[in-house]
Design goal:
The protein has a domain at about 25-230: Immunoglobulin-like (Sandwich), CATH 2.60.40.1190. About 5% of the residues lie in helices and about 50% in strands. It contains four helices and 39 strands. The radius of gyration is 26 Å and the shape is globular. It comes from Flagellimonas sediminis.
């Protein structure tokens, strides 16, 4: 049937009108810092005693962003920049009140922004206010680096080759950086980049920025960058390639039925080749991801699959070209569908900018067949194009193809398990106004398969507004019954959804509360005949304190009509029948402590009714203590109690996680994560030693243990020694 909501005419018109409105000059175009070439040889030691720094133009007189955005920062900051034929240099000095202590969590790379005194650099080399790079350091020298997308999102899983050093004094701390031009991408011949600098000082609870930014936006927002003005265009990168080989050995054992573990010796690696200063080719052969952070377990009481983020380095540069298409629950491409539990033979990826306004992403991955399950060798190909329109908006195109090799040779029984191919074609428009107050999206997706039951359609649209005090969002989605995305993340189909939110903040002149106000959120699902199947309405109130602690309380009203049988405990107990209806109310509360304390905590609770007129009690705690800067300890506790009628009665289970992060230096780390999930009857341990013996080059020793508890008893463990080295030219 034709759905009347597919074209979203009201939202489409609004998006186009605001797209025209967004065509305006950059907000902070009058803020400029000039950068000059130097012939001096730099020693990156955090002292800044080179003659170049005596004459370099400073960026200072920062603006306060939090707790209030209507004044200059009280803690002075100064940033200077220079360059030569190979490196971009930065020297930043951050003055503080003598006697105020530094606040840091550890020396761990890619630290948590809100828990550290830190400095961050945001670069927009294409001056498109959409994509870029971020580099930074905390007050004890831990590094931060990531790629930027969607106007201000930072992906810290990206890792690059650069150096920095920090020096501490009683009245200031100083950071000095050298970033190779070969480690970033930029447009050839351009003399102006977007740039901004951000500082967080937890002793005064002050966040500041070189350019003025309204308090509702993060300092990473590229819409508010100033300009880095070069005396001459940055140097050509010339031949730019990196070889990143690895070698590893693994020993292990398994006592779990159906899982065999063989000791192995493995060699492989990646190649990065700069096709231009703005376009990169990545190749991987026999990749290994044994050193990647393990997923944090969660208790799942939903009816749908949970989402876990991508952490593998090969998939991360320009990842937004592939991963941001659609919505979080309507993704035509999800890279974790490739190579988890199935060996990857090789892969290639081209990504970056063809020019200032057009971006390209092209990926091809080949996996091995799995004899034990009969899974054939498969090829995954993705094409993504993104054309900038207006000042910060863009139009995107995506094509995803999954193909099974030698499919016709498979046994008939396997052909019912594995499909010959699945394809998705999508088109979307992303709105971002020049002042960052309006954002939105409109997308359409079409799936294709060998059977008509796999040829379906998905569509979504939203418009969002954010100011100092008001914020609201309206959104609509539709997914047909036959829409299939085997390489995507689409946990639910055959529905129409409307959802929205609205909130208001009061900004009192108070020495304890910086803001407070009410919020409303709601999402409402219907089947294609517009019959209501489930909804949740949430009325809340939030309070943000000047010491950066926060409290919120939410009252919710929820309704579910089951579209499939469901065990409300998700522990393999009896299921509720399809079509049964359930309605309940409850309350959710959360408090997070001030981050500058050595002991930090977040407490939350969910109390209320549950399926089948039952009752659910959920208590959560996240606890942390640091012996700064060398040791950071954390614990996560989650308890669920489900009080239900027969045949479930009372079901309760714990989720416990504890993590010890020891940073001997900012190049020598040891972290251990223990997790116990009573719901899935699983106990896991991951312990990882990392020595960064050269920039972007590491030695890892990783121990993994995963134990299934009664009634599914068994254990698998492994010990891996892995060495990588980054060769540059």
């Amino acid at each position: 049937m034709t759905n009347p909501y597919l074209k979203s005419p009201v939202l489409l018109l609004a998006l186009l009108l605001f797209g025209v409105y967004s065509f305006a000059q950059k907000k902070n175009a009058v803020y400029n810092i000039h950068i000059q070439k130097t012939e001096e040889t730099f020693t990156i030691d955090g002292k800044g005693d080179e003659a170049t720094w005596q004459t370099a133009e400073p960026a200072n007189d920062f603006f306060m962003v939090l707790p209030m955005d209507d004044r200059k920062a009280t803690q002075p900051s100064e940033v200077k920049m220079a360059y030569d034929d190979k490196h971009l240099y930065l020297l930043a000095t951050f003055f503080k009140t003598p006697g105020n202590t530094y606040v840091v969590e550890s020396l761990r790379r890619d630290f948590s922004f809100g828990g550290n005194d830190n400095f961050l650099l945001f670069m927009d080399p294409f001056n498109n206010q959409t994509t870029g790079f971020s580099f930074g350091a905390n007050a004890y020298g831990a590094q931060w680096d990531g790629t930027m997308s969607n106007g201000g999102s930072v992906d810290l899983n990206w890792d690059s080759k650069w150096v920095s050093e920090v020096q501490n004094y009683d009245d200031k701390w100083v950071v000095e950086m050298a970033i190779p031009f070969k480690s970033i991408r930029y447009e050839k011949g351009v003399k102006e980049w977007g740039i901004n600098f951000s500082r967080l000082d937890l002793s005064t609870n002050e966040k500041s920025s070189w350019t003025p930014i309204s308090r509702q936006f993060p300092t990473a927002s590229l819409a508010f960058t100033g300009n880095l003005v070069w005396d001459n265009p940055p140097p050509d990168q010339g031949l730019n390639y990196s070889l990143i080989p690895y070698v590893l050995g693994t020993v292990g054992d398994s006592s779990i039925d159906g899982i065999a573990y063989d000791n192995e010796f493995k060699v492989g690696g990646d190649v990065k080749l700069g096709l231009s200063s703005s376009l990169n080719l990545d190749l991987t052969i026999n990749p290994d991801f044994s050193q990647v952070d393990v997923d944090r377990q969660v208790a799942n009481l939903t009816r749908f699959e949970l989402f876990f983020p991508e952490r593998r380095q090969f998939f991360l540069e320009n990842a937004d070209l592939f991963s941001s298409f659609g919505y979080e629950t309507i993704r035509p491409f999800f890279s974790r569908r490739i190579g988890l539990g199935v060996p990857i033979i090789a892969g290639a990826r081209i990504s970056g900018n063809l020019n200032r306004n057009l971006r390209l992403g092209l990926m091809d991955m080949q996996t091995e067949k799995v004899d034990e399950t009969g899974l054939p060798s498969q090829n995954f190909a993705v094409l993504s194009l993104q054309q900038k329109v207006f000042s910060r908006s863009n139009i995107g195109l995506m094509f995803v193809n999954k193909e099974s090799m030698d499919y016709d040779a498979l046994a008939d029984s396997l052909k019912t398990t594995y499909t010959k191919f699945n394809r998705n074609l999508g088109l979307e428009y992303n709105l971002a106004s020049s002042d960052n107050k309006y954002s939105g999206k409109l997308f359409m997706l079409k799936s294709f398969g060998p059977e008509s039951t796999e040829n379906g359609f998905a569509q979504g649209a939203h418009l969002e507004y954010s100011s100092r005090q008001w914020n609201w969002r309206v959104q609509q989605e539709y997914i047909s019954k036959n829409y299939v995305s085997e390489v995507g993340f689409v946990p639910r189909n055959n529905y129409i959804k409307f959802n929205g939110s609205a909130g208001y903040l009061f900004l009192p002149a108070s020495e304890t509360v910086v803001s407070h106000g009410p919020t409303f959120r709601g999402q409402y699902f219907f089947n294609p005949s517009m019959h209501s199947t489930d909804y949740v309405s949430i009325l809340g109130y939030q309070v943000n304190f000047i010491n950066r602690s926060a409290f919120n309380i939410n009252l919710f009203n929820e309704y579910v009509e089951l579209l499939a049988p469901f065990d409300p405990t998700n522990t393999d107990q009896p299921e509720l029948a399809t079509g049964t209806r359930h309605h309940w109310n409850g309350v959710y509360m959360e408090y997070s402590s001030k981050p500058k304390s050595l002991f930090t905590y977040m407490l939350s609770s969910r109390l209320g009714r549950y399926f089948s007129s039952g009752y659910r009690t959920n208590l959560n705690a996240q606890l942390g203590y640091r012996f700064q800067p060398y040791v950071s300890l954390a614990a996560t506790l989650s308890y669920n109690n489900l009080d239900l009628p027969s045949p479930w009665y009372t079901t309760d289970f714990w989720l416990v996680g504890s993590e010890a992060d020891i940073t001997f230096t900012n190049k020598l780390f040891w972290s251990t994560l223990f997790q116990y999930n009573e719901q899935s009857r699983n106990f896991s341990l991951n312990s990882r030693f990392q020595w960064r013996y050269a920039p972007a080059s590491d030695l890892f020793l990783v121990f993994n243990s995963n134990e299934q508890l009664s009634p599914l008893e068994g254990k698998v463990w492994s010990l891996t020694l892995k060495m990588t080295y980054w060769f540059n030219r």
